[in-house]
Sequence to fold (136 residues):
Amino acid sequence: MPKLISGILLFVFFTGCSNTKSTDSNNKGTTIDLNNIGLKEVTVKVGDQLTYSFEVHGSVGYSGAYKIDHEEVVMFADEKIKYHHPERMKEGMTGGDAATGTYVFKAKAPGTATITVDQLFRGEVEASSAFNITVQ
Fold:
């Protein structure tokens, strides 16, 4: 069992989060990092992906949450976690769960939708970002 957990942690560590705009052969579209584009109004094509990264530190109380007002237009596709110190994930070590979480959304159908992502601290909204997405 420990080898399985170690394997999963290594997979998460090495696949991690990307902060780039790129073409992903798996989604047959463009991936747009909402953290780095500096826009709140975004136009994408069906099949494109959008990512948003946030701080995660469960033992301290940092987490994220998202809302999509029109899930028929933009859907939640995945959540990725990249631990800052995976070597500290051993039992009894502190600070091992500090990480960057990344939500992945996919443009599903033409229309408009708003994605809102909240940075939470102990369940309370500390910061919020909203993006108006137009899918062509």
User: Anything to note?
Assistant: Confidence is low (pLDDT under 50) at residues 1-25. The CA atoms of residues 34 and 111 lie 18 Å apart. Residues 2-15 form the longest helix (14 residues).
